[in-house]
């Protein structure tokens, strides 16, 4: 059911590789775009020992460390779903927003379905890169975060920490929306 009110949630993930199932979701960061003081953050126990070394270099995570300290994936997804439920109501439509949303959404969708049987966001996501391209008319090559940062001048920067990146993305989203209104 589509609610009467949209709640935009900026979501960023760090993973051990390019595709869910074969690689693990290692961390989730999320915030309510309208009130980015409302945040969610969780590091997950890996579901496989498979990893792309470049992905681990970027995130700084160790699969061995997360195997000891990470939250069980089912528990992590229950906590994420519970947080989403707390910041919404039955009349709300949760909208997943991401920078390169297809990547982040694929992991979140896979984990929600694997561990909880459904995805509170439904079957779609809003991509900030595509939104920026549509809002500015720029070519796809100019939708890199570095170029967006130059043009929009957000106060935050991305740093491959899932929550920090979700907050940075939320600011980019707000700045793009101001630009098109």
Automatic annotation (TrEMBL):
Domain of life according to the entry: Bacteria
All residue ranges annotated as the Exonuclease domain in the record: 7-180
Pfam family, one: RNase_T
UniProt GO BP: DNA metabolic process
MF GO annotations: exonuclease activity; nucleic acid binding
CDD domains: DEDDh
Signal peptide extent: none
Protein name, UniProt field: DNA polymerase III subunit epsilon
């Amino acid at each position: 059911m589509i609610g009467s009110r949209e709640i935009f949630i900026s979501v960023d993930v760090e993973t051990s590789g390019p595709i869910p199932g074969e690689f693990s979701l290692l961390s989730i960061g999320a915030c309510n775009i309208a009130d980015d003081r409302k945040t969610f953050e969780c590091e997950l126990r890996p579901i496989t020992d498979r990893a792309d070394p470049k992905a681990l270099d970027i995130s700084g995570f160790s699969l061995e460390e997360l195997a000891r300290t990470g939250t069980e994936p089912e528990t992590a997804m229950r906590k994420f779903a519970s947080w989403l439920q707390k910041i919404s109501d039955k009349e709300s439509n949760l909208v997943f927003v991401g920078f390169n949303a297809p990547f982040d959404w694929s992991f979140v969708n896979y984990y929600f379905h694997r561990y909880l049987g459904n995805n509170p966001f439904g079957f779609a996501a809003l991509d900030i890169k595509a939104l920026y391209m549509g809002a500015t008319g720029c070519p796809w090559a100019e939708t890199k975060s570095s170029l967006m940062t130059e043009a929009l001048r957000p106060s935050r920067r991305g740093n491959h920490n899932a929550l920090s990146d979700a907050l940075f993305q939320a600011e980019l989203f707000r700045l793009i929306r101001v630009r098109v209104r």
